[in-house]
Amino acid sequence: MNTQSVLIVGTGLLGTSLALRLTDTWQVWLSDISPAAAALARDMGAGSLYDGKSVPDLVVVCAPPDVAGQCVVAAMRRYPSAVVTDVASVKQAVAKVVEEEAEDRTNYIGSHPMAGRERSGASAADRDLFEGCPWVLVPTKETSERALGLVRSVAVEVGAVPSQLSAPEHDQAVTLVSHVPQLVSSLLAGRLKDAPARAMSLAGQGLRDTTRIARSDAELWAAIVAHNSDAVAEVLEAFARDLAELRQGLAAGLPAGLSTPGRMGSVAKVMLAGNDGVERIPGKHGGAPRRYLEVSVLVPDKPGELGRLFTEIGEEQVNIEDFSLEHSAGAAAGVARLLVMPSVAQPLASALVRRGWQVPSAMNRGR
Fold first, then answer.
1. How far apart are CA 30 and CA 263, in angstroms?
2. Which domain CATH number covers 308?
3. Which residues of 223-235 are buried (b: 16+ CB within 10 A; e: fewer)?
4. What string of pLDDT tens digits covers the 367 residues of the chain?
5. How many structural domains comprise the chain?
6. Does 288 map to a domain?
């Protein structure tokens, strides 16, 4: 069989990560409005600089949503035989440009790999970025089976889990699971700008978890949210109502304290709703979330200690379902939180104690 060829237009995080993974089986060409960015992706082993003459089988447009539509139309006109997809975070805006400006739309299919990180650019690329992540296929009414099948096969090849939605369904879904969480995280982090140093010195893993994505690229997210503004505004309005209700419940008790009706209940209502929402987040393999037990282990802040812990867990034939590491500023040890199947939690804790690890039994709990 002839090796298939793909032209990656835009060598940022997603484009370079995809190129790195496809170089094993595809002829990969790289193109970017910035020659330096394309050269960096090439030097990282993501493929060859595009010669401007060869005709690809597939074009993947990895551009922000404000320009993705125009890039898709340009690729469709230049390579009429190629399948063209884009990986923009909003789909209705791109599909609208394609519908209005492209003559033959059978070779176009929108798509969106739900993968990324707070860092951007080719230097942050990872060939395993898409492993286990959803990849949404967004065909139009005119998309051919050939186009749908080719992009689906690419998603599977890079380790993603393909699904299919319409453009409106996609944009509504990512509003809830991506766009609003990004804004809320950034709003929370913004409150830290003027926080006293003594307060910041107390920051723990909870604050790090909720503000991690606040490091994301401001220009990119401005374009994303602006092109999905109606759906985002609707969810933010509901969020604002929840905040107003919580604030009203807290303020009603001032200054009488805990004996005043409403204060405790308003907080509990928010927490219980959050508990219910978290329960709906799929497990690591998709589908319904699974119940795991958490085994906490103190890990000395020394080179090789975390690697030793993982090695010894492997020797016990235990699979780690999920993992996080909490490390307070200035502490001599971090707390590794290991999520494992309930049947192996206690045997693992006992085995780690025998091997000399400190396992605080009070920290072991279900999740």
1. 58
2. 3.30.2130.10
3. bbbebbeebbeeb
4. 457 999 999 999 999 999 999 999 999 999 999 999 999 999 999 999 999 999 999 999 999 999 999 999 999 999 999 999 999 999 999 999 999 999 999 999 999 999 877 677 888 899 999 998 999 999 999 999 999 999 999 999 999 999 999 999 999 999 999 999 999 999 999 999 999 998 988 888 888 889 988 988 898 899 999 999 999 999 999 999 999 999 988 887 666 555 655 678 888 898 999 888 888 877 655 555 567 888 999 999 889 999 999 999 999 999 998 888 877 655 677 888 898 989 999 999 999 999 999 998 644 444 5
5. 3
6. no
The one-letter amino acid at 356: G
Structure tokens, 232? 């985002």
CA distance linking residue 253 with residue 264, whole number of Å:
9
Q: Are residues 200 and 272 in the same domain?
A: yes
Between CA 138 and CA 143 the distance in angstroms is 9
- Note whether 155 and 184 are within 8 A (CB): no
**Domain CATH code at residue 13:** 3.40.50.720
Domain that holds residue 58: 5-165
